[in-house]
Design brief:
The chain is built from six helices and 13 strands. By secondary structure, it is α+β, with helices and mostly antiparallel strands. It folds into two domains: 93 residues, Ribosomal Protein L25, Chain P (Beta Barrel); 103 residues, Ribosomal protein L25, C-terminal domain (RNA Polymerase Alpha Subunit, Chain A, domain 2). The radius of gyration is 20 Å and the shape is globular.
């Protein structure tokens, strides 16, 4: 992987709600926690501006991160993130320790290529309808891809791509496919049908309740 992320964090000894709120509001810190790899969970704090800057890079979500905890280094992945529903504020972050010899499950973003030259759009007047923006994969930390590519250039009107059509790197497998769940990733549809489907998804209870349910809490 081309990107490297190293963040300096501090061990946190306070856990009360009022103390955590003070950290956020007065000191510009984000409460966090690190866990996993057979070790005890450890509460942390990290500067809000530092974490927010790192999160601007989409690669941060699917990379191994080096946390420098009071001069002790831990290799982790970002497992969960809680944001304020209105304000541009990070409320909590969960980091999971990793071991080189143990597989991990990670959300890996999809990069859709050649959408502007897609046959189904450019020549046949269709519209690309994305169903997934990321794919859950299982792999060893050293095999973790930064992203997965899907080339839309030769996809025609009415065609679709499922997980089974995606090219996964060696040593990387789809979690859903391992459970025989071949999810639809993207399709090219006639504009009318695409608009109707988008409207149906927006109106469905599942879609409306599918907000950012990641929770870190004041751990």
């Amino acid at each position: 992987m081309s990107e490297e992320f190293t963040l300096s964090v501090q061990a946190r000894t306070i856990s009360g709600k009022s103390d955590v709120n003070r950290l956020r509001k007065l000191e510009g810190m984000v409460p966090a926690i690190i866990y996993g790899a057979g070790k005890d969970p450890k509460p942390l704090t990290i500067e809000h501006r530092v974490l927010a800057k790192a999160l601007e890079n989409s690669a941060f979500y699917s990379h191994i991160i080096k946390l420098n905890i009071d001069n002790v280094e831990e290799n982790v992945i970002l497992k969960d993130l809680q944001r304020h529903p209105v304000r541009d504020e990070i409320l909590h972050a969960d980091f999971m320790r990793i071991r080189k010899d143990k597989k991990i499950t990670v959300h890996v973003p999809i990069h859709f290529l050649n959408e502007e030259t897609c046959i189904g759009v450019k020549q046949q007047g269709g519209k690309i309808l994305r169903q997934l923006a990321e794919i859950d994969v299982l792999c060893l930390p050293g095999s973790l891809p930064e992203y997965l590519e899907i080339d839309m250039k030769d996809i025609e009107l009415g065609q679709s791509i499922h997980l089974s059509d995606v090219k996964f790197p060696t040593g990387v497998e789809s979690v859903s496919l391992s459970h025989d769940n071949d999810l639809l990733v993207v399709s090219v549809q006639a504009i009318k049908e695409a608009v109707e489907e988008e409207a149906t998804e927006e109106a469905s209870p599942e879609a409306s309740s599918e907000s950012d349910d990641k929770s870190g809490g004041d751990k």
